[in-house]
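Researcher: Last one for today. Full complex below.
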Amino acid sequence: MSLHVVLTVRKITGIVNGMQSATNEKALVHVVDDDASMCGALEGLFDSVGLQTKTYATAKDFLSASLSDRPGCIVLDVRLPDMNGLEFQTRLAQIGVGIPVVMMTGYGDIPMSVHAMKHGAVDFLPKPFRDQDMLDAVLAAIERDRQRRVVESDDSQLKERFETLSPREQEVMLLVTTGKMNKQVAGDLGISEITVKIHRGAAMHKMGARTYAELVRMADALKPNLRKLGR
Amino acid sequence: MSLHVVLTVRKITGIVNGMQSATNEKALVHVVDDDASMCGALEGLFDSVGLQTKTYATAKDFLSASLSDRPGCIVLDVRLPDMNGLEFQTRLAQIGVGIPVVMMTGYGDIPMSVHAMKHGAVDFLPKPFRDQDMLDAVLAAIERDRQRRVVESDDSQLKERFETLSPREQEVMLLVTTGKMNKQVAGDLGISEITVKIHRGAAMHKMGARTYAELVRMADALKPNLRKLGR
DNA sequence: CGCCGACCTATACATAGGTGTGATCCCGTG
DNA sequence: CACGGGATCACACCTATGTATAGGTCGGCG
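Model: Here's the assembly. Have a good evening.
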């Protein structure tokens, strides 16, 4: 129990300092295309470089499937039976799925490709494409996903810790990390300085911050997430 | 003298906390196209919404011109007499010009547009385009430039201040902002704790940090810049 | 009801941070 | 050579922080 806490503390401090954990899980490529022969061809291509593939005939198939928690990317035909590829991209963003998308199309034009790229697509390949181009795109997308997953997991771990703080401890942490002195925080909250010290100490412990500087960095890393959820 | 210091201090702390200075300078659109009639048409279009325009017939013309220090963007034909628009984009990055680019073309294809977008273009418009689309792109590019300029000016101000610190003060600042205690820093540098306090205090003053938390944030904002120049 | 956890407060002591005064040493510049 | 700035250190003093001990209220839960 105590050991576990120490281990997680080490992990999170590494995170705050920007270390990358070696996430060497095998990647999974999601292919969404109603053309079965294309799905098969891509599966073969990806298999040849050791990438696992999962195919879906429609956008709905993909959206209703449960996503395994692995690094990966989505290879998407712009033209799907049930949905435009661009809409699909928007939907993914709405439901908070950040898996990078590689778009492909047989009939697209420039504005379509620009739109997709503006909305975060990793690449946009007109059909027919060269195998190598697709592979390059997919590998780049997977790399981007690995980065994203590291950042997201760091953020969520930080957020988890923060939520173990009592409301008062959270308030105190946010105020002291702005640089306010304990007595100023006490004034702001209408409580005594000694109480602030208690909450502050508790926050340090629960967050796993060994120094005040670490607490400041954690608070900074936390703030973007706090804005997303609520105020 | 003393007053000046106080003023700049206010400015930089605002910066660190993410305030945007109201950069309401008038924007300038650089149009690079060898087609004089296109240049004229664009100039008219931009003028109609109060944007100033400067035109260049070739990439070289632009690159040899002196850039005024104003927010703006570049509207660029992919096909230029002396250079490909994509190469031009690369050149801009190489020489450290971060002005956003809006690309336009009469003969482009999807891979070209994707390449441009991957390399940071704000938009890529096939000719003929609707005036409104061009205006939207240019206004978005200018807004992006304003943001970029705020960030860049903050960074450079921080860096300027940092360079007014003596070498020892810089070392001490970087060490204390990792969370090390004064005595630990003293041990690392082989000097006494009291000397560390002196340097630390000088660093706080010269950087304009009112609190230790601000100094930590400044150090964090500074580190990406320090890696660029040297180690 | 009794226990527990969150929250609040106080006293007291130890450690850390910040500043002023005064001083030494080295180095480069006028 | 004299001056000034950078770097170093010491003593003194005050403030801020961290923690332990001890005790209080309040609300929920078995």
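The beta strands of chain B are 28-32, 52-56, 72-77, 101-105, 123-126. Residues 1-22 of chain B have pLDDT under 50 and may be disordered.
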